[in-house]
Amino acid sequence: MGVSDIENRLAAAERALRTAAPHQLVDTVRRVVCGAYAAKAVDVLMADYGLTALRSVPVTAGPPKSLPMHGSPAGRAFGAQEPFVERHGGGLVRVHLPVTVRGDRLGVLSVTMDSADRAEECRAELAEIAEVLGHEMIVAERDTDVYLQARRTDRLTLAAEMQWQLLPGRSCARPEYALGGQLEPAYAVFGDNFDWSASADRLMLYITNGMGEGIEASLLTTLGINALRNARRAGLSIADQAALADQAVHAHYRGRAHLSVLLLDVDLSTGRLQVVDAGSPRMLRLRERNVTSVDLEAQLPLGMFEETDYVAQEFHVEPGDRLVFVSDGVHGVAAPGGETYGERALARAITSTSLLPAPEVPGAVLRELSGHRGSAVPDDDALVVCLDWFGRT
């Protein structure tokens, strides 16, 4: 098949997905792939909020199919972010392709074909279709709940619904860095949160450790994050962002509630890192298999007092550095015997996950944490964010 034929086929597939109704993307990609690539079956699987399962997007009545994230062929493609070919009887093969948008891992496109040769021939094209599908899903979520509903293995509390809607995503990647974050308990999280935004030369990152429980915690975090975004979008420095968000929180709560936030501003061209530590989130650095806690000047959480001034500290990150940020629901969690998790155990967990990509690290650390506390369900929010710094060449 000539290059022009491949280009025409891909263009037709992209056009079909872009013009499909938001709720019909799965039907459309199934029709396109079965028609143009002679596929026998096509499934779209979304990663659930807890990153424990891949769930099919329902197209008919009834519960969606669910596959384990760890141990399944589709989960392997999701974790490795590489196509994985699964062989079946009768010569059939199933190709699992990650559905990822700028590093944000959404799920997997699984395509069943009648031969390994045919699957290999079409794999690169199918990977491009999976990428287009991801972009269209992100756009479609403005108009339909189909893809958000498929991500749920359980009902979210209202507080968790509000927190997940605040997030920019769960992972992202650029040549200079890779980012990943995870919240627990995924379906009942209260006030912990993270946010990031990147421009041509800057990455800004917030790690939030919310105060309180339930709706009140979510409302406090929502106010704080949106105040920080408002100041950031006005072009202010992170010290001034913290000051204006502090005023917004204090104006509403008058000191009755406050918000702990760690603010970071990374210069993507030099690796210069400015940090404002306004509360309890911790930052640890993995450099050449050595984990150290980054000592920061503790400043007041947002909203405690009126018109607090904040000062940014300056550090440098080197290519190959990994920064891990945790809330007090991680470093302060207690085991059944009473001992806290602490920085030593956290350092071991970070070292043991050093070969994993950044988006996989938060989940792995949280699984390690659940073994320490002796129960699957935490008593407090737990948040882990991982930033891998590659540098700009």
Report on the architecture of this protein.
It is a single chain. With 393 residues, the protein is an alpha+beta fold. The protein folds into two domains: 3-151, Beta-Lactamase (2-Layer Sandwich), CATH 3.30.450; 158-389, PPM-type phosphatase domain (Phosphatase 2c, domain 1), CATH 3.60.40. The chain is 36% helix and 27% strand. The strands form three sheets. A six-stranded antiparallel sheet has the order 3-2-1-6-5-4. Strands 7-8-17-16-13-14 form a six-stranded antiparallel sheet. Helix 1 (3-19) packs antiparallel against helix 2 (25-37). It is elongated and about 65 Å long.
Secondary-structure blueprint:
Blueprint: H1 3-19, H2 25-37, E1 41-47, E2 53-56, E3 66-68, H3 73-80, E4 84-87, E5 93-101, E6 104-113, H4 116-140, H5 146-150, H6 158-166, E7 171-174, E8 177-184, E9 193-198, E10 202-209, H7 214-233, H8 238-253, E11 260-267, E12 272-278, E13 282-287, E14 290-293, E15 313-316, E16 322-326, H9 328-331, H10 342-352, H11 361-373, E17 382-389
Antiparallel strand pairs: 1-2, 1-6, 2-3, 4-5, 5-6, 7-8, 8-17, 9-10, 10-11, 11-12, 12-15, 13-14, 13-16, 16-17
Helix pairs in contact: 1-2, 1-4, 2-4, 6-7, 7-8
> Average pLDDT value?
92
CATH architecture identity of the largest domain: 4-Layer Sandwich
Order of helices and strands: HHEEEHEEEHHHEEEEHHEEEEEEHHHE
Query: Helical segment tally?
Result: 11
Helix share bin:
25-40%
Strand order of the largest sheet: 3-2-1-6-5-4
Distance between the termini: 37 Å
CATH C-level label of the largest domain: Alpha Beta
What is the CATH third-level topology name of the largest domain? Phosphatase 2c, domain 1
Largest sheet data: 6 strands, antiparallel
As an assembly, this protein is single chain
